[in-house]
Structures are given as C-alpha cells and as structure tokens.
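re: that chain from earlier
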Amino acid sequence: MTANRTSLHRLFDSLEYLVDDQVGIIQFVLEAPRQPGSPDFFHYFAQACNTQSFCAQTNFGKTGGASADPGTAMAKAIGEGIERYCAAIYDLSELPLYSYANAPFQCVPPSDFALLSPEQYQRPGMLFVPFEEHTPVRWVPAHDPLTNERWHVPAAMVYVPYIFHRGQGDSPIAQSISTGLACHCSYAEAAISAICEVIERDAFTITWQAMLAHPQINVESLSARNRDLVARFEKAGYTVTLFDMTLDVGVPTILAVSRSTRLDAPPLVPAGSASLDPEEAVRKSLEELEHTREYCHKIMIHFPRLPDDPGYASVEDQTGHLNFWCNHANARLADFLFTSPARKNFDEIPNLATDDPDKDLEILLRQVRKVNHRALLCDLTTPDVRDAGLAVVRAIIPGFHPLVVGHSIRALGGNRLWTIPQKLGYPGITRETGDNPVPHPYP
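^ sequence. v structure.
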C-alpha cells in the first residue's frame, strides 16, 4: 500500500467527525459533474463551516480538488477546507504588538523577507508600508526544527485571512495569502507539504518574473501512471508541457503547462508542485493543472475578458490574474517559457525521498539550510482537528520569493529574484532592467 493510499485511509477514518451539515468543520463535500469536452478527472468541492461563529474572522469556506482518483480529489477538497479553517482562528488581542527593535523575544529581522521595492512603496495609493526595524506588527511564534530555536514571525504571514484594523497599531506590511499552509494526517507530513509549497512558489515566481526557460521533460519518459494523466489532457485537445523548474534548493520542482487553440478552452494554464519524490511532484502538478484549468474554464464562461490596459491595472485579484490568461491574444506573452532547447528524461531528476515522513522532513529542512535559509513552522492545528487525527502547519522561509495576487504589488524586493537565475547559469534580470512586465498566470 502506498503512502498516499495510507493517508487517504487515515483521512477517511475521520470523516464522520469532520463532515456534518450541522456541526461539522466541513458541512458537505460533493463530486462536481464533469464538463463536456474536459479532461477525464474527478472534481470535488467542499463547503466548510463559518469560523466567524466563534472568532472575528471568516474563513475561506469554498474549496476543491481534482485527481484521476476520486478519493484523492475528495481528500484535497476536505484538506483545503480544514487548513483554511485552522488558519482563520486566532484572537488579535492575544498576538503581541511590537516593532522588531523593541520586541522582548527573538524575531526574524524584517530585512530577511522579500517584499516590495523602495520605489513601489512610493507609488500613490500603495496599501503597504515598508517593514523596517521600528515598524510595529503583531508576532506569532515559529519553530526551527533543525536548531529547536523559537523565532517570531509577523502574524500577517501566518494567518489567513489576516485583517489590518485601523487604530490597532498593526502596520500593513504584506498580503495575507495561503502559500505554505497545509493539512495532513501527521505533523511531519503537513510540514513537508507546507515547505514544498513555499519552494514551488519561490521557483515559479522567480521563473516568471526573471523569464526563465527551463529544460522540458520528455513525456514518454514518465511513469505509466503520469503518462496516463498527460494523455487525459491530450484526448481533450490540450497540449501539455512539463518543465524541470528546480532551482538552487535541489528539491524536485515541476511546472506543468497546458495549451489549447480551441476558442472555448483556456489558452494557457500553468501549475506546479515540489516534492522530494519527483514522481509525486509530476503527479501533483498535473492534478493541480486540471484543477486550475477547470477554474479558468468557469472564468471564461462567467466573466467578460479584461479591458486592454498597458499597465495591467485591472489585474488585481486571483480572478483577474486567471482572466488575463483566458484571453487567447495574451497566450504569446508566455512564449519565453518554451524557448529552451534542453530536454531531459524523467529518470535524470534525483529522488530524495525515503518514504519516512520524519526523515523526509529533516532532508527537506537541510536542503533549505544548504542555501542559507531556514524553514520555520507554525502549528495551527485546532483541538478539534487534532482530535480527528489531522494536523495543519504553516511554513515560512524568510527570503524565499513570494507569490502575490495583484500585479502592481508583486514582490520586487529581496535578493533571490535578482541573483539566483545568474547563479544557475540563466541570463537573469537586474534592478535596472526590471522584471517581466506581464502579470503571472497563477491562481
């Protein structure tokens, strides 16, 4: 029995405690009907309860997942609902408010984070302020498992949604987003998933903003299971390209991109995944590709295309980013992704996994440490979720490049965007030339 199948059984053993239309963390989970002409995948969607019944914040309650396996698709929808539930439950008054300079506990220095550039902060209407040593923010403790040290990180980078209330003294320093948030059947497994998502988002944002063209993976070299997933897209008229997007961290990171010339289909959709096991990274990238493709298809049906805007000011939320790429006229703007002549077989990508979650977590932590960064973990598991045998973890890697929703507030600070491509042999970009001016296509 595979580790993935074992995790599914552990989750399904807890369903009676999790799913209930009256008192469940998840009110319901249902299979979505497959749309005509779409790839042959299962889609499930779930509705979580409203956390505002017992705290000030409302969680993101609508979740979903896709897979060729119905159990996995259902688990994705449930897990996402639970992680968003846990991440929304906090009491603002219990979070200590200090500047870095005045905090009586150990904090990650503000300069360690990749945020906005000085020029961005000067723009009229900018919502965020520079995060500096004397900027007051609320803090949350985080754990460094390698050193057993306790660090504090800004609460806005842990909880979601995180609201900056006027008059409360908390400075708006960063967008609250779900990167690095994961639910699994054990703390170690949740931590692995959380860290891998931070690695994947760092790789994609650097790839997009620095316009990197990665080696393509020969589809015929994939395992039979993953070749089957690609074939499901191809039978529906999509072309799928897989890229080895692994950067300096060395954790296998895969980017899957679907393309279509059908006017009723999304012209370009990307999705990525990182995992110590490249087999899993490929599979998850393809499952996420179908999940995002379906979302884009709904946007094509229910939303008008965005107006032409040279500055892309209309791309300011998740729907806007995807809607921009639902316009077939914009597909050519991603052509740079496909320009590398390099090809590789799947078996050239090293497998770092041991199938032991505790050992794999340590390997992952050390891979991050090798590039002079640290992975910090916040256990957000609520008592009811813990009683159900699950864990929710938020991973933060200060300095890794973040995914941001809203083109005008994309991260142009930090160092990795401006240095890592050159270290890996790519031309890269400079602060003088600037980054890719086109909005990213990630949800």
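Residues 12 and 189 are 16 Å apart (CA to CA).
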